[in-house]
From TrEMBL:
NCBIfam families: moaB_proteo, molyb_syn. May be involved in the biosynthesis of molybdopterin. The gene is moaB. Keywords: Molybdenum cofactor biosynthesis. Belongs to the MoaB/Mog family. This is Molybdenum cofactor biosynthesis protein B.
Amino acid sequence: MSELQPLGVAVLTISDSRSLAEDTSGDYLESAARTAGHTIVARELVPDDIYKIRAVVAGWIADPDVQAVVSTGGTGFSGRDSTPEAVGPLFDKVIEGFGEVFRSLSLDEIGSSTIQSRALGGFANRTVIFCVPGSTGACRTAWQGIIEPQLDSRHKPCNYAAVLSGA
């Protein structure tokens, strides 16, 4: 088996109520990415504000050291949840199946409440972006079920690491 091609990963937490010290979801994603062999290039926490979210993600899309962005939070329907509206317009291509597969996986865990998730994924400027709900459980489901294997250059029959490297 070939060696893993480590990717530069940026983690963004979107929350009006948490600080970095209380950010168990961002902690999980950072730890999981490191454990998988990737490099954490950046980590931030921003309030659920369309323009603040978009500014951070756009900066990472323009950064050649960032090949993958994983955001947590702001994907629901309540209050100020606005991650899809902030990040979706930045995509060059949408990963149509990401939200569908995430909701399918989480159906076993949270039942019909999964329909309230607006998880989404896409590509922009050779950067893959995954936006998942804010709970640590949802981050674990998305990471283990979809994101980790898709960022693993050894995953067959296909993975996004190969797309990002141009292979």
